[in-house]
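Input/output pair, single chain:
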Amino acid sequence: MGAGKFEEALELFQKSRRLGIHFKTLELIGECFMRLGRWDEAVVPLAAASTLNKGARAPSLLAETCLKTGRLHEAVDAADLAFARQPHNRRLLALKEEADRALRADVGE
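Output:
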């Protein structure tokens, strides 16, 4: 991934996933899909990673993905979860506020 070879990295992470489920593998699969612009495909592995681990990174990436794909309620939920896990993280606060604004704009508030 560090070399920008996201297709190759994705293949390796998917092989790893077939050998066993680990939150980091799922998180990295989701991130590869994001970097490749395959936003819809990123949702499931990021949601699974968010469930399997109590860190804030996976739900943060999930919130970004959901914003990109118009899943605004899910974006708010994921951003809330990420922020709850790291409440002093300014980046997560900004993401939460962005998701809330997008949802309000979508419902016409």
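The longest helix spans residues 90-107. The chain is about 80% helix and 0% strand.
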